[in-house]
């Protein structure tokens, strides 16, 4: 009994989540405590609303949602998720499942797992205050292997969000404010994501943050805190920043980070020569942040198993919803040009992809 107690106490002291509490095998970071829903519900229709639709599926809490249909769901209004749900986009038959045209919102909800979902807001959106994915004031939420593109306000809006993970996901080609993600409150974990062709906010994080194994391509500003007050800690480990045709100042890989911030930075690389070859150099000066000699978060070093170069290869191979569709193939191919190709856009149509730039699934 005494022995058992000792073991439990030491796990808690290390900050390790117990195995049974993981959202799914391999889940990492602060959102990995999400447990989602358990009541099976199958999406059987690509219609915007009605029985068996995605909108119907997420309308009640407690559901563990799978998909018997594949393709795009054209949203005619925002979709509001319930608490305590799991969206298993990866269960859709090939070529997978996506939503387009409006915001998916988990605003003020809790305990949500979303995997394998494509969210492509785009110019069909009629409200320029909406984002591709909104988790404002949400808690205990994890997005994994999702593909977010053509966001209007932000790609991911997470102001007031607590216990968040976004992992293995594409956050690319925002078209309105041309912003990636905006998170406040936290704590938050951004792991192995691919951020492509945004003006800023990759992410903007006013929170204690883990930022590990991300690849940021063709940025105008990368990781930012915005110098607008707030005292936070940042573990920034083994990320790869790569400039592209739209990058105006390579040194804006870290942007507006004042001396109210503390950062542990290690193994980050910046490839700023646009020569089509991956050959970055060390980039571990995080603005004016106070240097931490060890991570603020107990799990950061164990999450950071890949070097920046290994993370680049892994992200290129695995990031986003699977199978990779026309939009994600286009996005990844711009990154693989390593400086030669990429632009920050105002309308998805300008990608030249089918279906007015939304591509087809
Ligand atoms: C939810 O559904 C997925 C896909 O069928 C399954 O793998 C998972 O075990 C289910 N989770 C729960 C908690 O029921
Ligand atoms: C966030 O996670 C911690 C455990 O890591 C938990 O104690 C806390 O209650 C969670 N916050 C919310 C709002 O659920
Ligand atoms: C640092 O934080 C303090 C208090 O939150 C604030 O008054 C000050 O302006 C901040 N400094 C900077 C450089 O942002």
From TrEMBL:
The keyword Signal applies. InterPro entries: Pectin_lyas_fold (IPR012334), Pectin_lyase_fold/virulence (IPR011050), Polysaccharide_Lyase_1 (IPR052063). GO terms for molecular function: lyase activity; metal ion binding. Keywords: Glycoprotein, Lyase, Metal-binding, Signal. Gene3D superfamilies: Single-stranded right-handed beta-helix, Pectin lyase-like (2.160.20.10). Residues 1-23 form the signal peptide. The keyword Signal applies. This is Polysaccharide lyase family 1 protein. It comes from Rhodocollybia butyracea. The lineage of its organism: Eukaryota, Fungi, Dikarya, Basidiomycota, Agaricomycotina.
């Amino acid at each position: 009994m005494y022995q058992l107690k000792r073991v439990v106490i030491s796990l808690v002291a290390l900050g390790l989540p117990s195995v049974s509490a993981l959202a799914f095998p391999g889940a990492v970071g602060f959102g990995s405590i999400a447990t989602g829903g358990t009541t099976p519900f199958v999406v059987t229709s690509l219609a915007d609303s009605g029985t068996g639709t995605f909108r119907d599926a997420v309308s009640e809490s407690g559901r563990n949602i799978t998909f018997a249909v594949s393709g795009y769901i054209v949203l005619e209004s925002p979709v509001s998720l319930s608490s305590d749900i799991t969206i298993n986009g990866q269960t859709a038959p090939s070529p997978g499942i996506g939503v387009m045209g409006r915001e998916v919102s988990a605003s003020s909800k809790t305990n949500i797992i979303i995997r394998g979902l494509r969210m492509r807001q785009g110019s069909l959106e009629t409200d320029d205050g909406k984002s591709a994915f909104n988790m404002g004031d949400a808690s205990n939420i994890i997005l994994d292997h999702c593909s977010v593109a053509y966001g209007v306000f932000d790609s991911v809006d997470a102001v007031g969000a607590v216990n968040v993970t976004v992992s293995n996901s594409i956050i690319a080609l925002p078209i309105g404010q041309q912003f990636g993600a905006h998170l406040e409150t936290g704590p938050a974990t951004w792991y192995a994501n691919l951020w492509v062709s945004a003006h800023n906010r990759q992410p903007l994080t006013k929170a204690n943050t883990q930022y590990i194994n991300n690849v940021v391509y063709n940025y105008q500003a990368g990781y930012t805190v915005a110098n607008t007050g707030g005292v936070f800690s940042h573990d920034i480990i083994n990320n790869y920043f790569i400039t592209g045709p739209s990058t105006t100042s390579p040194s804006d890989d870290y942007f507006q980070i004042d001396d109210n911030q503390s950062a542990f930075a290690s193994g980050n690389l910046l490839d700023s020569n646009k020569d089509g070859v991956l050959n970055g150099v060390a980039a571990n000066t995080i603005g004016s942040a106070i240097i931490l000699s060890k991570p603020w978060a107990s799990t950061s070093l164990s999450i950071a198993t890949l070097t920046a170069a290994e993370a680049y290869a892994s992200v290129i191979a695995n990031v986003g919803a699977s199978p990779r569709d026309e939009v994600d193939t286009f996005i990844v191919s711009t990154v693989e040009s390593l400086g030669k190709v990429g632009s920050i856009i105002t309308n998805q149509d300008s990608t030249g992809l089918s279906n007015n730039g939304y591509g087809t699934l």
